[in-house]
Design goal:
This protein has one domain (22-187): Substrate Binding Domain Of Dnak, Chain:A, Domain 2 (Up-down Bundle), CATH 1.20.1270. Helices cover 79% and strands 0% of the residues. The protein has helices at residues 14-17, 22-27, 29-72, 76-131, 142-187. The chain is rod-shaped and about 85 Å long.
């Protein structure tokens, strides 16, 4: 599975790697661990995207229920509480959507990080093969492997900068939601929208 991701990467041929002595394979452990961590990070990022989808769905259900409360309210106080609940639910959904945009950016970052981990792994493999003076390793240009790693890391840095902007927007939405939740909690004496109730 690891070799199938990052298809466009320059790779050390398997016929060269098959000749690697045991000692050289031991030296690759750090790069292999880095690769395994990158896979785990990507899996977690994808799981977070899926969790957020479920949270958004629950938030929409909550918003719909709050709107039903407004039309079912029999007195002014009940109607005011229901309207605050609609505002709180609306702000919650807005925040969850903004948070999902952050999650998607994190997933993109994790994918790019995996590609970079693969590029680092290929540099480590080439270094080990050239150090062991394996047949065929002399034809592989280390500068091209280093260049692909550098390019990958530059792309990662650019993605990280874009992720900061999305994160700032999500934080603004979270603050708006907190304010709406606090207003609802005050109106209902913490019976609704309190973090302890949720």
């Amino acid at each position: 599975m690891l070799l199938s991701t990052g298809c466009g990467l320059r790779r050390v041929p398997l016929k060269v790697l098959e000749q690697l002595p045991y000692e050289a394979k031991i030296e690759l452990l750090e790069a292999e661990n880095d690769l395994a961590l990158a896979v785990d990070r990507l899996d977690e990022a994808r799981a977070e995207v899926n969790r957020a989808i479920a949270q958004i769905r629950r938030g929409k259900d909550r918003h719909s229920a709050a709107r039903d409360e407004v039309s079912a309210a029999t007195d002014e106080n009940s109607k005011a509480v229901a309207e605050l609940a609609v505002t709180e639910a609306d702000k919650r959904v807005e925040w969850l959507r903004a948070k999902q945009r952050v999650n998607v950016r994190e997933e993109d970052l994790a994918e790019q990080n995996l590609t970079c981990a693969e590029a680092r792994y290929e540099v480590a493999r080439l270094t080990a093969a050239r150090k062991a003076k394996l047949e065929g390793s002399e034809t592989l240009d280390p500068e091209k492997f280093e260049a692909q790693l550098k390019s990958c890391e530059e792309d990662y840095a650019a993605l990280k900068e874009k992720a900061k902007e999305v994160g700032a927007e999500a934080e603004t939405m979270r603050v708006d939601w907190d304010q709406a939740r606090t207003a609802l909690a005050r109106k209902t004496f913490d019976a609704r929208a309190s973090p302890f109730v949720e």
